[in-house]
Fold:
Amino acid sequence: MMSFVGWWPELVKGPDVSLDEVCIIGAGVIGSLCAVHLAREAQVSILVRRQEHARDLNEHGLTVSGKSNFTSRVYAVTDAAELPDFSLGIVATKATQLEEAVAPLKGRFGDAAFMTIQNGIGAEQLVARYGDWPLISSVTFMSGIRHGDHHIEYELDTATWLGPYQGTSIETARDVGDLFVASGLEAEVLPDVRPAQWSKLIFNHAVNSVAAVTDLPHVALYARRGRPSDLGWLVAGLIDEGKATAAAAGVELFEDPWEMNVEAVTTGQTDSEQYAHVPSMLGDIRAGRKTEVEFITGALVGEADRLHIDVPLSRAMYQLLRARDRSYDD
Amino acid sequence: MRIGIIGCGAVGSLFAAHAAQLDDIEVWAYDISQEHVAAINKDGLRLTGVEEVHSRPTATTDPGALPVLDFGIVATKGMYTRSAIEATAHAFAGGAVCSVQNGVGNEEIIAEYVPRVIRGTTFPAGRLIAPGLVQFDVAGATQIGPFEPKPATMDEVESLAAILSRGGMETIPLGDARGAQWTKVIFNAASNALCSLTQLPHGRAANNAEVRWVMDRIIEEGKQVAAALGIEMEKDPAVLLEESIPVALDHKPSMLQDVLNRRPTEIDQLNGGICAFGDETGIPTPMNRAAWYLVKGLEASWRLEEQ
Structure:
């Protein structure tokens, strides 16, 4: 078995792009997919929580299968003090672990820009609490399956949408988008990510909350509205409440979340006849982990309250999800 | 006098076992479970728990074996109402049939097959723990009254109530039993659906502030539908819910038992029933609808896993 221990920082510099040192904070599914791809074009360091995870990545590199197939060298640490300099930090933790991961970076890496890639809304503001770094906002639709600490399967090779948030220009966002595309990921650069972020927020809110409460993966039933008791009515009701909230917030949606739902369950993005993707909140519930409910359904209900929009169905889902999360505190 | 229990599961067995203690009443129990029927005919029907009862109704899986009956008590799960009454209606050509089932909409189905119908609501609960043996968990009263569109006579209602009460199942005859039924339906729509979705027992679900918020709204909508139907509630289901917490802290409502055993639930008759009558009266029922869809989604998740 090859060992990559100690290769950093002797590695020869990558191709001549402006963002040649990237730090991935958190190596779950999305962090790992970013890391393995971007490492083809840049030196990639990874900040993880577990020692074994870091050791495993440093010993074996990071392997991707599925839509991409290769192994990349990465440099993983568990202590932020050991991170080498970087020009782009991608915060890819779960929203629930974001603050814990970013806090040790406070006051450091003054020259870096940071990009958030979490589900829901509110991640940018959380990062901004720990430094006045220029920020890039993003929403990702790619998905993967972890097969251990150093093997990630690239499941859906759908795009990441990114754009300037604060202290950055569209040019910086374009550089990041170019880096993504050059490394084999799909990316789309937008002057304002909010319309895309809200489209995904509303889609995630409806699909994730229903999945987390019913234990039903995202299947065709989510888009069915034949009989009066069909689940599609609830999904549509949740989406309508989200759209009313977005409209009140002055956000014009990039995509219709209902169409996203229909497309996801009818086009069979997973190459299987029955698209049975397990949404992340359901994955969390099944694994006994806390869900991102506060950043998705909670954030939406919070916005609705602020804007005085009545969202009874969304609030019901929020209450039920909180009840489920609460049970893990015991 | 002959009584037929149609569907001799947990609740049906409570009625059958009690009534069969009476010397002057012949009790027939119709059920599709071969083992349960065989056990009843061999060793009798036993209740254990809040009361010990052992009696000998005549059980059968063959609807053709039923003699002419004076009264019927339908105690199947709601999704089997039609098939059960369709098979047994011949025995009630001259009799009156009473539903003691959960939810709303069962009497309407029964009325399609028999001439005189009694609306019933029962609170006693239990569970089948072995063929011929039922755990009697919760005692309580049953309220019955004529089903308005196709009513049994008040004499029949009073006669049935007297028989059941004499057998040990307290039964109250009412001129209008809708208030009692809707009180229980609304209570059950809140409790059963939310216990099923959270997998918490009754009292613990109601004690959880997040879950209670949803329960309270389900109850509020149900009360509005009942009011639009001109029904006066027997008791405020919100008060009933509050009072039930210490009594049924760790009780698993029947729908939660169904969910844990991956059996089809009665959600169509509970929250679905409230939605149907809400549509009829123009009352919006978004929270009942959400609960209805979510339990349907939960049921769908089992079918997906079986594929």
